[in-house]
Design goal:
By secondary structure, the chain is α/β, with parallel strands linked by helices. The protein has helices at residues 2-25, 30-42, 46-55, 60-67, 75-86, 101-111, 127-139, 156-170, 193-197, 265-280, 317-328, 344-355, 371-386, 420-425, 436-449, 458-462, 466-478; strands at 116-124, 144-149, 174-180, 201-205, 224-228, 232-236, 253-255, 258-262, 302-309, 332-336, 340-341, 359-365, 390-394, 397-399, 403-406, 410-414, 418-419, 428-434, 453-456. The chain has a 15-stranded mixed beta sheet, with helices on both faces. It has a two-stranded parallel ribbon with strand order 7-14. Helix 5 (75-86) packs antiparallel against helix 6 and helix 13 (371-386) crosses helix 17. It starts with a helix and ends with a helix.
């Protein structure tokens, strides 16, 4: 009995110490602080373990390395573009974008997101056509192939890709693959051995020094990028795995959005890859214009900015760009996201838009892949419904697309969900598109998806079972740390 009392006393003292650290030393967001205090209070001992896994922050030393790793090739070009914007001299291809110069300027200032408008962009809404073309372009690569993925599975699709990359490495093509250590936790290192033996380089992002246990569940690299010869770049929601081809029996058809970019915007994807690679790899990539081939002829006329955010910055650049889009809306906002756990600023912006007469529509999955996130999402949908937002549940399969379209003018596609984790804790990258035709295409995709959705009504929400209300209430309280 005495031993049990001693154990309880130690756990209680540990909780008090950790609570003091949370309140007085870490200076977290107040909502996250209260959420962690609840976990510690109601789950003593277990809550401490959860904090070790989910609650750690990046050390100052690691943050310094992240912030000092900026690629310098485009600094002068970004500074020059900033001056052109300040003087009102930057020309835009699509005249409808004249009213959005302020958003371009904001992204340049906050993230150094260089604006290009010589791009051709292809949209993919399902995996088979995406991977068919991606694999074809990799097979035709002449210089290098760079890949960065949050999830890289050792299944049929993953095996096919590793075999292709191995073949290219044997041909003398530079192949570099960076995968997230938590997102791809189930993949053994031996899976990539043939590629490494062929001369390719494979590195994991923020791995654990303890086998089979990674205490850094936060601060994951959630990006999905492929860059081929510095001329073609892929970005969006698709990872590498059979489920992204609709082969998961539980989730079924996989609805996602991905882009193929050809044009100078690929330079920005390349630079992003280098920054993440040099943070993770023992052998750094030296800055060289060889990875940024000259493009004398424009590939297209689409204007865009590549915007990245992560825990290395307090600016939350992607979230701010989302907010800017919402506040610029005059007619309609179409938003798709698999995980909808907005902070107060995003929630308020969407509600204000709807109450101002903007047609705001939010589409989320109708079936869960993460139950607690699914329940929390529904609590926020109920709040949107009260303000006049129309909410849709996608039921054909699993909806993983991360897109926003405003007024058939502005649009965004990328890796960031509309949740606190994407805005503050993960490394993310989105493409912000300034082109009416691209916005129209993405808008039409959204409208086609509505045929596979069920609209949630206020009556339905108010009459939901007591169990659902309790689930939503609990997860809503924990949403800042989900």
């Amino acid at each position: 009995m005495l031993l049990l009392e001693q154990i309880v006393a130690v756990i209680t003292a540990g909780n008090l110490v950790l609570a003091a650290v949370l309140i007085f030393m870490e200076r977290r967001n107040i909502a996250a602080t209260w959420a962690w205090l609840m976990v510690l209070l109601f789950l003593p001992g277990i809550g401490f373990l959860f904090y070790l896994i989910f609650g750690q922050r990046l050390s100052k030393k690691k943050l310094y390395r992240l912030r000092q790793g900026e690629f310098s090739h485009f600094r002068a070009a970004v500074d020059k573009q900033k001056k052109l914007l300040e003087q009102g001299e930057l020309q835009v291809n699509d005249l409808a974008m004249e009213r959005h110069r302020d958003m371009i300027f904001m992204n340049v200032v906050s993230d150094g997101a260089y604006y290009t408008q010589d791009n051709a962009i292809q949209v993919f809404a399902e995996g088979h056509s995406l991977f068919d073309l991606m694999f074809k372009q990799i097979a035709e690569a002449k210089e290098h192939v760079h890949l960065l993925y949050y999830i890289f599975n050792d299944d049929e699709l993953g095996t096919q890709l590793v075999q292709l990359l191995t073949k290219k490495a044997r041909e003398g093509i530079e192949v570099r693959l960076l995968y997230d250590a938590v997102g791809s936790a189930g993949v053994p290192s031996r899976f990539f051995r043939p590629l490494v033996e062929a001369g390719g380089e494979v590195v994991s992002f923020f791995p654990s020094s303890i086998p089979f246990l990674n205490f850094r569940v936060n601060f994951r690299n959630h990006r999905k990028l492929t860059i081929i010869d510095g001329k073609s770049g892929y970005i969006g929601g698709f990872n590498i795995g059979d489920e992204y081809l609709g082969k998961d029996k539980k989730l079924g058809y996989w609805r996602d959005t991905h882009l193929l970019i050809e044009g100078k915007a690929v330079y920005m994807l390349q630079a992003r890859f280098f920054l993440d690679w040099n943070l993770s790899a023992p052998k750094r990539i030296q800055e060289s214009f060889a990875y940024f081939p000259e493009m004398n002829e424009p590939q297209g006329t689409i204007g865009c900015q590549i915007v990245s955010s992560g825990p290395n910055s307090e600016k939350q650049q992607i979230k701010h760009a989302f907010l800017k889009m919402i506040y610029k809306a005059r007619k309609k906002i179409y938003l798709q996201t698999p995980y909808f756990i907005p902070d107060d600023s995003m929630l308020t912006a969407l509600k204000m838009a709807a109450m101002s007469g903007v047609d705001v529509r939010v589409m989320v999955p109708g079936r869960p892949d993460h139950l607690m996130v699914f329940w929390a999402t529904h609590s926020y949908l109920g709040e949107l419904l009260k303000s006049g937002v129309r909410c849709y549940l996608y039921e054909k399969g699993f909806m993983h697309a991360k897109t926003m379209v405003v007024d058939t003018q502005l649009s965004s596609v990328g890796t960031a969900n509309v949740d606190i984790r994407s805005f503050k804790l993960n490394f993310e990258t989105n493409v912000f598109l300034y082109d009416s035709q691209m916005a129209k295409q993405l808008e039409e995709l959204f409208e086609a998806d509505l045929e596979d959705c069920r609209e949630m009504t206020m009556e339905e929400y108010l009459n939901r079972p007591l169990r659902s209300r309790m689930q939503e209430s609990l997860t809503r309280l924990l949403s800042p740390i989900l």
